[in-house]
Design goal:
Blueprint (H helix, E strand, L loop, with lengths): L1 H16 L4 E10 L4 E9 L12 E5 L8 H4 L3 H11 L6 E5 L18 H16 L9 E6 L1 H12 L6 E5 L8 H10 L6 H10 L2 H7 L2 H4 L3 E7 L5 H13 L5 E5 L5 H19 L3
Parallel strand pairs: 3-4, 3-5, 5-6, 6-7, 7-8
Antiparallel strand pairs: 1-2, 2-4
Length: about 280
């Protein structure tokens, strides 16, 4: 009787543990481009260790002041994703959360090209995680999202590489300076130097409004866009202007304005919606 009880208890325990995903938030990859080790966090779905299947992937970018642990600690990515998968509103997926707050803050190469974070992301981080973990490597199974600075990274990465992402969901995004003059002032404050032509070229490549003008509409329409910003968010203007620019260029997108500000409370409420949105593409809707 005692043996049967132990076996039953073990089976129940294994069953409960199998229902929970896992997060590792102190992983690292060696970067030759940045000449340093770079940290990242990863969420693995509940059945990852018991299956042999490959999974779609969501790259989830943090905001300024946070690092790869931001979505883990404050965004509660483990609890929210586990629940969405359990409810059937999200498909099991791998979530990769990089650190863009070490050495230099931000997701892009610097104006003088001395710091090449964007090159690192696409040439080192993405190949590393997609070969280390059982990740499906086709565009239709890859999505990107992020908040604030990471929302800006989401816009830029998807617009720079529309061939790589099926869905993009910028949240409360910082889309970059709204004018060339504002960018010049910002570059001066940050001591980034370049010729007038270099500064203008960099601005146009790192501003969502300029990229909407410059990138082929067909390429941008190959991505499913979900743009979300609170009505009390200080970044509402840039997100509203992106919405208007996309409407004018007939770029399909969902634009949501909910009650709230630039807070983790708002983004925790956004995450289940994002998981469902990207899962629709993973499922081929």
């Amino acid at each position: 009787m005692k043996t049967r009880f132990i076996i039953l208890f073990t089976l129940v325990t294994l069953g409960l543990s199998a229902q929970t995903g896992k997060v590792y938030d102190n992983l690292s990859v060696k970067s030759e481009i940045l000449k340093m080790d770079r940290k990242f966090a990863i969420y693995l779905p509940p059945d990852y260790e018991t299956s042999e299947r490959s999974y779609p992937v969501l790259y989830l970018l943090h905001g300024a002041g946070d690092d790869q642990t931001g979505w883990v600690q404050f965004g509660e990515v483990l609890r929210i994703t586990d629940q969405a998968i359990k409810d059937g509103t999200a498909t099991p997926m791998i979530i990769v959360m990089p650190d863009a707050n070490t050495g230099q803050r931000g997701y892009f190469n610097s104006l003088d090209n001395a710091w090449k974070y964007e090159d690192f992301f696409f040439e080192e981080l993405m190949p590393h995680v997609e070969s280390t973990y059982r990740i499906k490597k086709e565009k239709r199974f890859r999505a990107i999202s992020g908040l604030s600075m990471g929302g800006g990274g989401t816009f830029m990465y998807a617009m720079h590489h529309p061939e790589l992402f099926s869905s993009a969901a910028p949240l409360s995004a910082y889309i970059g300076p709204l004018s060339l003059d504002q960018f010049k002032q910002q570059a001066q404050r940050m001591n980034q130097k370049g010729s007038d032509a270099e500064i203008e070229s960099y601005f146009r490549k790192h501003n969502a409004l300029s990229l909407i003008e410059d990138v082929d509409a067909k390429a941008l329409n190959s991505i499913r866009w979900f743009i979300d910003c609170g009505d009390d968010d200080f970044l509402y203007e840039g997100n509203s202007l992106v919405h208007i620019a996309m409407r004018k260029k007939e770029i399909n997108h969902e634009y949501r304005v909910r009650q709230g500000g630039h807070t983790w409370t708002y983004w925790r409420e956004s995450l289940p919606v994002v998981l469902k949105f990207v899962s629709d593409a993973f499922h081929q809707y």
